[in-house]
Amino acid sequence: MNSYPTEFLVQLAPVMYVAGLNAQPPQPPPSDARPTPSSQPPAKQDPFTVLSLRLRDALTAQRKVAIWQPEKAKSFQAVFVEKDVSFPPRKAVRPEDPQYNAAHSPLSPLTPSSPLYPDGIIAPIWIRKHTTLLPSVFVLFTRIYESLVKPGEDDRDREAEERRHDAELSAEIAHRKKSTSERGIKLTVVLMASRRMLDDPTLDGRLTYIRRQSGLDPRAALFVLSPVSQAEIGDFVRSLQDALWEPALEYYTNHSKRVRRKRNRHSQVSYQLPISPMASTGVARPLRPEGWTVRYEFKMACFAEFRGEDQVALKHYQDAYAALLIMFGSTAILPPRTKRWAEAKIVKLYLYNNEHSLALSYQNSHMRKFADFSRGWGIGEETFEFWSWLARQHRVFAELLEQGTRSTLKIPSPYPPQAPSPAMLAAQSLEASQMGLEAMRVLGVNPNQALQHPGFYYYMAARCTERRRERFLGALEFEGHQTNSPGFANERKVDHLAIVLELYTRSYEIFRKWGPQNVQSPGRLTLWIAYRIAHTYYESGKFDMAVRFFERIAKTYRRESWGSLLQPLLTQWYACAQQLGDVELSVKLLIEMLGHGANASEDDPDALQDDLLAVLKSTVPSATDEPLVVDLSEAKAFLNASVVFWDSEVDVGTQAPFQLTLSSQSNVSLSSIPFTSLAIHFSTDALPLIVRHPQDQEDPDAEIPAVHRIDVGQIIVAPTPSESREVEGALRWGPGTSIVFTGSVSSSFPTQLSISKLLLTIKENSWWIEVPLIPTTVQLENALIAPRWLCSVDPLRFIPIRREDHSAVKVHWRRHEVQVAISLDGPAYIGEEFPIEIRIVNEDDRELDVVLDVLLQPTEIDEAVNYVEIDDQRSSSLLKAIACGVLAPGSSVVKKLYLTNAGTPGERVIDISVQSHSTVQPPTPVSPNTPTSFSASTLVDRTETLRTIMVSAVSPVKIEHAVVYKRVTGSQPGLADLATFEPGTRDEGAAVEAIVTSTISVVAPSGLVIESLRFHRKNNARAEVIGCSVDQEDLSGEWLSGDELCEKCRISVVPDERHPEQPTSSPGEYEIVWRRLLSDGSHGLRSTTRLPLPSLIPPSDGLIALIDAPTVAHLHAPIPLRLTVRNRHPTRTATVTVQLEADSSADAFVVAGLRHGRVPLLLPGQEESMTWNLIPVECGVVKLPRFKVLDRRNAMQVTNVQAVGVGPGQSSAVEGQAEGEEVETVDVRWDGRPEWAQDEEGHDVQLVKGSDGYALILP
């Protein structure tokens, strides 16, 4: 922005004149005074001098002149002046002149002595006048007189002296007040006094006198300040600026109103264009109304900017710019090639408001409109003036953005946002949404419509400057008729390349700063700018600097394979090397250029090799005793090398055919380059194969075939490498030709064979050059084309190889001929050691050391622990390294594997691995370079044979249980029986007798031989086995599939009082010792199966009635019938009544006993028994009398409910239950309950057999 006046660029702020703070120099000591000893402290500085210095520092630090200042703080631009400073005159004549009223400002275009006369618009001196010569407020610092208190002095004399000094100070202030009032400037006086003066009671009166005599305003016009600390100085300065801010704004507002009135007057005056003779006489034409409009709009914009009203200033600047466009649109108003003002404040004010799109749009619109004007003026793209102007626009915009980014301007990033963290989300929610909207507009839009960082516009300025130089160099050819042009003469003095280099350098630095931080390599455009810098150095003749940039740029271009960018770079790099006389660098670059085909075409494919031969024949290398190695590992090689192996795997000692193809570029010829040899290096430590070019068959005119085949024979990779083999073959390539090296390779030990490197040697005169090449598996430009195998030269035929690993072959030992046979008999039984026979047969011609591994796969069955066992090894998962011995050819070995199954039936998976090792010692490779490069595991001749078997495991027997529960009819212990409270005593009152019926079935398909069947008791505190039927039987013998056995167990169970639904653990188990019944009649191994009894959950009772009567009776012989009412409810009492019902059984018996009565109150856990004597009078099966047992406890509750809820004369559904709830009556002779069952709704219920009892009456 140096081409623009500073006044047009800086941010305007209210101006404050500060007078009276000039520090007084210290008074020198008298010449005859004695020197002060160093031990004495220096003289104390005047506190008012310190105060003045601190005030100057504080006022200066409030605001500094800068281009970018978007902050809206109430701060002034302080200008330090003398007390008697004068203001510039308003008009060009003195006020006493008679022409004063008709005169104009010295800077007006109407004043002949003005620099703008006659048609100037605005000049930087006008802004300088309002920023340095005319303030908005005037602050005067001065000392108030303080008289020294002397002993004996009269107070009236002291007051008179103070009044005289106050009158002089008032006169001085009044004189200053007169000059500021004429200009509308606010005057403020700050009186500096000591702290002693602040406590003087006469200070208020003196201040009032000074204000009245000097005519100061009553508000914010007089302050008193004493020497204070630096922090208090800052508070005072801020309060002073706050107090003077409104008067300063009023000052600039009055200026704006005055200018607006003038603009309105000029807009109403019609303007007559002067006649042509006036122009012919050389008389200047006055400024047109359009120019006055621009002038007044610009002034109002500046005054609005002084006030901090950026939006108002922006509107006035836009109006001034619009009027200026009208003036530039007419060559009659503004002739071309005149020095006119252009400015960029509109763009800056847009950026203040974060309106990036509008700022960029206005900048582009400005350049587009004035570009159209320039074409109309004859200053189009073909002139250097146009590109000079365009470059200046881009540079000014870039410098403005750079100024802003150093402060508060934030440019939306074009990169996708990262995943925000919670802290970032919280921070972003506090920011304004304007930046987010701008960032969203950037996505998916034209880059020309998105604001970018300053580096981009510096780059555009550099490109325009390059165009400027091109147009200027083109104009030099027609220098004759432009010699007298001032613009052309000035252009001769411009160092274009220095400007271009400066712009590119600044752009490069900013691009590196604004690039993504997580990317290691610079961006593409950053490297391109670096290339333009190198090109500029090359044009400037600084070839060494250009070479440095080329070296750094080429590394990234090579690594990322940017061939189109490398070609021009290598060409200019080679030109720099020629200018520097670096022959080694020239040779390296020429060889690399052969790969890219730089400076070569199909019409002249020999151009590059001719240049290389010219260098080799005309120069001498710096070192002749060692080769010059040209590393093309990251660059594109001039020969495309591809390797294809016919087989992917071969055995040791078997030849693996391969083909190595070297192809040249289609537009580059290598027929004249003196290749002397080609060394083919394999991936092993074998010595390379050398292919030498025959020197006696040099025929430069011989035609090079498109495909030439060279047979290199058989190559053997042995443990002790011999001398390297050499073959002859023509090593010459024409444009687009190929040489195919065919051969085969074998190895005497396992390895992976591939061609790791090729080494081409060039020798010419004293030059010895080696070019290493790395074969590639797939060419980048032909990634979709499969590698090919040459099968015929005449006619030319290829076979595509559609295999990924075509560039290498694996060499392994010949597989051992080992047969593994596995035999097993039927399914395995749970609990049995199931035998599995493994037979291993050596059908190879070598002795083999065999090792066996067995892996039992885990099952998904819970609590299933299975084992495998061989010999003396047993494991639940893996049996490792079971030796089977050394097997001679044709011999075999048998191993017995035992599988033990547990848990539930299912499938068991076993993996069997047979590993055979050859007993012959393998050859040990010895390399002259790395003798221990082969590991021992790679050289072991080993073969692994895998087998997987799936064994079905079934249960040999199954058991089914049926459980019924009977109530105990014995006497119950009393509630007060202390023996029931002793620890370890069973609650016999709650005991239930469980009868478990177990059905044992044989399900083994082959049948079993039962050796024993026993029952083992496991009594506990809650369950005790009373008896079991298996104790008295011998069940040994052969059992076939489907045979069954039924056994019964009687168990006394005491349920848990707190948790009656909790199951009782099994009190015993059946143990069956059995053997498998084999098909030949023999028996297998002894096995044991344990079948536990089920867990018991006895049902619980509440209130129950039990009837006990004999089953058989004799006629006329009395029999007893006992009714026991038992209350097993844990908390409730029972009120029970018993009634003997009259039914058909009344004629069969004569009953002696209670007919209807009430049972005493039954507490929880208590029972009551009653007995009747029955005399049968009929024979046969006779039904016993029925008893009706009612629980009156519920009947009493029902009655109460009826009394409360039912009125007189109404019926209720519960009347039938008013007598009580019927108690269940059970005949203990037929008592038997299962555990639980479910009703139709899915609820758990207990099933109870009927309560009707019968008896057989005999005669």
Automatic annotation (TrEMBL):
Q: Which InterPro entries match?
A: Gryzun, TPC11
**Residue ranges occupied by any Gryzun putative trafficking through Golgi domain in the UniProt entry:** 633-933
Domain of life assignment: Eukaryota
- Pfam families under this entry? Foie-gras_1 (PF11817), Gryzun (PF07919)
Domain Trafficking protein particle complex subunit as annotated: residue spans: 345-595
Region named Disordered: 21-47
Q: What is this protein called?
A: Trafficking protein particle complex subunit 11 domain-containing protein
Species of origin reads Pycnoporus cinnabarinus
State the organism's lineage. Eukaryota, Fungi, Dikarya, Basidiomycota, Agaricomycotina
